[in-house]
Every structure is written in structure tokens, then in C-alpha cells.
Amino acid sequence: APTPKKVPIPPRGVDYRDKIVLAPMVRSGELPSRLTALHYGADLVWGPETVDRAMIGATRRINPDTNIVEWVRIPHFGQKQPPPNVPASVIFQVHPSEQCKKLVYQIGTSDPDRAVEAARMVAADVAGIDVNAGCPKPFSTSGGMGAALLKTPDKLCAILEALVNNIVPEFEIGISVKMRLLETAAETETLVRRLCGTGITGLTVHCRTTPMRPREPAIRGQLRMVADICREAGVACLMNGDVESRDHAKKLIEEFGVDGAMMARAAETNPSCFRPEAEGGFASWQDAVEKYLQNCMTTYNRFGNTKYLLCNMVPGKWPGFKNISQSKSYTQVIRTFGLSHLEKQAMETDAKLGIDPESTAP
Ligand code: FNR
Known about the structure:
This protein has 362 residues and is of the alpha/beta class. It folds into two domains: 20-279, Aldolase class I (TIM Barrel, Alpha-Beta Barrel); 286-353, no CATH class. The protein contains 15 helices and twelve strands. The protein has helices spanning 31-39, 52-55, 112-122, 138-141, 153-166, 168-171, 185-196, 223-233, 246-256, 265-269, 285-298, 303-313, 321-326, 330-337, 343-353, and strands at residues 20-22, 44-46, 50-51, 59-62, 69-73, 89-94, 103-108, 128-133, 174-181, 202-209, 236-240, 260-263. α3 (112-122) runs parallel beside α5 (153-166), α7 runs parallel beside α8 and α11 runs antiparallel to α12 (303-313). The longest helix has 14 residues, at 153-166. The model has no long low-confidence stretch (mean pLDDT 95). Residues 23-28, 48-49, 106, 132, 134-135, 178, 206, 214, 240-243, 263-266, 268 line the site of ligand FNR. The site of ligand FNR has 24 residues, from α10.
């Protein structure tokens, strides 16, 4: 049989084939979530969508305590008299253990030049750049970003081509896109063919149309067709939508002829969904929470973000749930879970973040 065509993967890039990956998720895909997914066997992780305008003008620095690479915006930077004690806001973080090899950076954009400018700032630290062409939320679509790009294919292709022409030669990583299904198979087919002609190395298809809500089951009817077009063009195809575990992913990959799969909500609830059955499969939610909390503390994750994800991981009927949802410090959380061996670290983390470990709800 003839060897199948493959778009060459740039030397520093990654091939999405045979990968089960963590989906891009605003809030839920911050650094400690990604580290936890990698711990449980995710092959690659996507960062949360980061809007090009937020990244442009940020400053790259290395956090001396953690060695994490951070892009920060320093408020009032350049003003004669900046107000004191306004914390810099962190736009994006890369941990040494995901840097260059495991992390794909997702851009929210509606403009080729801005996309290139934003991508250029992180390209040396990541394994790939992905364009969000699937987010249906008004904050994304109203700016012409996310799923709005599915309706402006010329613009979407111009963005991908600009990234391929400007980022690939200089940084030697691949460009990819994450899209949703269009209303008809014919429309999807036309768009996928065009996208595959831009020079991208990977395409993820979220098996829902733009108006579909997350609780509506994913539709698989167009999936084999998308996979076939990608294979013909040599572009790796990942499927997304209602994938529950690594073993479920493997079955779907086989069934639909895609190259890999991406999980979002399954990983948000229990990041051990990436672990193969043969290695133990799903961990208990308690074990996953402990691993996640360790990653939050070693990276000094913002407490509000940690609590947000904990409320996804802890079953609502667990008696301590309300305590977790009302807690104000790592120390309180660690005590509620009864993880006394982590209490000292929790107190140190609170101190570092300027949180009163005993602070009570107002
Ligand atoms: C998302 N999703 C998403 N998609 C994307 O391309 N960029 C993003 O930043 C986000 N953010 C995001 C946040 C949260 C909290 C959720 C739950 C989802 C969509 C996500 O990547 C995925 O396409 C869908 O959730 C469908 O996959 P699952 O959940 O059925 O595995």
C-alpha cells in the first residue's frame, strides 16, 4: 500500500497522531490542571484560550521561586507615578515540565497580524499554536473570534496562513485549528478542505454545531468524513466532544478513523480519565483532588481558581462540599479534606499568597 501522505511536522513541533489530549479550557485549564492531567497520562495539554490583545504587550519573566515562565501585564506600566501595590496580572504560564514538548498554546483572534504578534511571544516555549474557531460565547464571537470564524472562512484561513508563513519557519512548531461542525455535512466538508490547505499540521473537530449546548449529546455523523479529508491532506485529526476516558477515546478513534482525541469536561471532573485501564484507570476523586492540590500549592495557583476547579472535582453530595465552596484559604481546604500531611505546605502557600489561613467568610 502507498505510504499515506503527511504534512511534515516541524522539527520542534509535535505530531497529534495517537495522542489523547487535554482540551483548552478557560479557567479549568490553568497550569495546575494541566500538570495533573500530565501526571495521569495526558499525552499533550492545550492551554486555555488566550486572546491576542491580552498577550500583546505582556512581559515574559521567569518566576524565581518556581521557575515557571510567566507573561504578565504590569498595570499602569510606563506611568510617571504608578499606584503602589497593584499586583501584576499573569496572562499565561508555562511550567518547565510542559515547556516546548507537551503544551499547545491556543489563541483567540480575529486578525492575522495580531495572531502572529501574539504567537511570536510564546512560540519558543510551546510545542504548537492552535487557533480557537469553536467558542460560541458572545465575548468571543462578538469580536469576530471563536465560532464566528466558521462564518468568515476567508479570515480564518488568512489567520492560519499568516501563522504558517511567519511562525513555522522561525520557531519550527506546527499550527493547528479547533473547529465545530457546520449545519450540513457539505458545509463542513468545504471548510475542512480549505483549512487542510493552509499548511496546518492538526485539526480538532468538536462534534457539535455552534448553537448546540454542552448538555446535548455530541453528534458523530460527520466525523468519518472529516477524518478522511484530513488523512487525504496529511493533517492529523483529533476528535472532541463527550469523550469519557482514555479507553473510550481508543474505541472512538478506531470506530471513526480519527488520529486522536481530546477531553474537556471528563478531565475537569477527574483528570485521571487519561490513565489507561491497564494502569488502574480512574483514580478516586479524593486521590485526584490531592494530586491537584499539590500541583496548586507548588505553583502558587490563585486560590479562587483552585476553589473553582475543586468544586468541579468534589461530588456535590460529599458532606464537606459546602465547606470547600466557602473556604478562603489552602489551609482550610486541606483541613476539610483531612490531608494533615499537607497542612504545613498549605500554611506556607497561604503565607506566600498573602492569604490569612484562618480567614472566615464575611
Ligand atoms: C471550554 N471549551 C473551550 N474550547 C476552546 O477551544 N477554548 C477554550 O478556551 C475553551 N474553554 C472552555 C472552558 C470550559 C470550562 C469548558 C467546559 C469548555 C470547550 C472544550 O474545549 C470542548 O470543546 C467542549 O467542552 C467539548 O468537549 P467535552 O467537554 O465534551 O469533552
